[in-house]
Amino acid sequence: MVCRWFLAGALAAALAGAAWGAPTGQALTLRECLLSALENHPQLRAARARVEAQGQAVRVQEAPRKPSLEASGSGRAVEGARDASAELRLSQLVTDGGKTDLAVRAAELEREAVLQDLAAARSDLVLEVQQAFYALVKAEDDLEVARRNVAVQEEQLARARAFFQAGKVPKSDVTAAEVDLGQARLEQTQASGTVEATRSLLSRTMGVSPRGQALSVTPPPWTDRKAPSVEAAQSGVAARPDLRAQGLRVEEASRNVALAAKDLAWNVAAWGGYGWSDPGTGEWKSGLSLSLPLLDGGRTDAKVGQARAKLEEARATEEDLRQKADLAVVEALTELRTAEESLRTALLVDRQARENLDLARGRYREGVGSPLEVSQAALNRTKAQRSLAKARHDLRIAWAKLEHGMGTNLADLEGEGR
User: Fold this and answer.
1) DSSP E strands, 258-297
2) CA of 169: how far to CAs of 21, 152, 360, 364, 366, in Å?
3) Cβ(136)–Cβ(144) below 8 Å
4) At what angle are helices 171-206 and 99-165 packed, to 10 degrees?
């Protein structure tokens, strides 16, 4: 526990410094970004406030079970004559036919549902952070690709100039190399802008100010993971907090049907107190009060019908959520398998592009190649490296979506960020 709070405090201090323009001094891991989001994001603060509010709502429903104390008094003056009276009365509900018990249980079920809503909000936020984190990883990879391409084009321009001065190539080779370098520098500038934009996005999902941020990230290491079958993935959907929350609301709606019928229930309360009146007379009083509604103009029947309709709505919503969750898992698995194949292909294409670029540059050095050949090979290598970065990004996002769909993306963060 002490270690966990120390880590959270250290991370908060580092992020606070970054928010005011101080350098963080190190690249953040995915877990550190997740912990910051779970602790600081305003959406979760709002969700935690709703949990607290519903806890107070349970106390409101429990209040009739406890004694109540009331003081009252009156006074008047008529043609010079004055009189006054006062009373202190203690009341206690004896029975209301189970109405309070049903109301309390319904409020407790809503509190449990709101807690699951908080878990669902945390799960959604984890996915948002993962998407922003991996977007920044991809943007930084793209920027590094652009930088390497600039270095290649600078080397090519220097070689073209040297060959031109030696009379080995025409001036057009130098011009072509200058154009290629200019295009490479433009792409580097664009990649740098994308990095800044994704940094701001990650800062927002982490719940910290993006002003002056100089965030950098360290992607988690690649691990050999096997995708589950469709059946196994769908069997885990029941663990999703949004489905658990809706299941609780179905039970709550069922209790509310019974609660609505209790409007015609009898009510017994015991009371006792002391009454005083001027001039100086007082007495102790006690008794039982009984109330039994007989006719209410159909109000109770209407409330029961309304509660039953809401129960049917809750059941339909639960079924709709379950179907959407099953579909989301199937789609995530499809994306995952596609991403795995795309990554395998991208690795092969990148290897081929690297070999072709080495060959083209070697031919040009020997004076048997053309600048167009080098330019095209460099362009193909840049495209291949970007495709490889995208394939890695897509595979990571596919896994994140699958874990979110199965309700398992909070497994390693239980107890973190409340």
Assistant:
1) 267-277, 281-291
2) 50, 19, 16, 10, 12
3) no
4) 160
pTM score: 0.80
Provide the 8-state DSSP code for 41: -
Instruction: Take residue 96 and report the two structure tokens written for it.
Output: 């209301």
Region for residue 277 given its phi and psi (left: phi exceeds 0; alpha: psi -120 to 50; beta: otherwise): beta
Concatenating the DSSP letter of every residue in 315-346 gives: HHHHHHHHHHHHHHHHHHHHHHHHHHHHHHHH
> Using alpha carbons only, what angle is made at residue 395 by residues 391 and 398, rounded to the nearest 5 degrees?
135
Residue with tokens 């509010």: 53
pLDDT in tens, 163-185: 889 888 889 889 988 999 999 99
Give per-residue pLDDT as tens, 93-138: 999 989 999 999 999 999 999 999 999 999 999 999 999 999 999 9
- Which DSSP category does 278 fall into? T
Q: For residue 249, count CB atoms less than 10 angstroms from its CB and return exposed for 0-12, middle for 13-18, buried for 19 or more.
A: buried
Tokens of 254: 């069922």
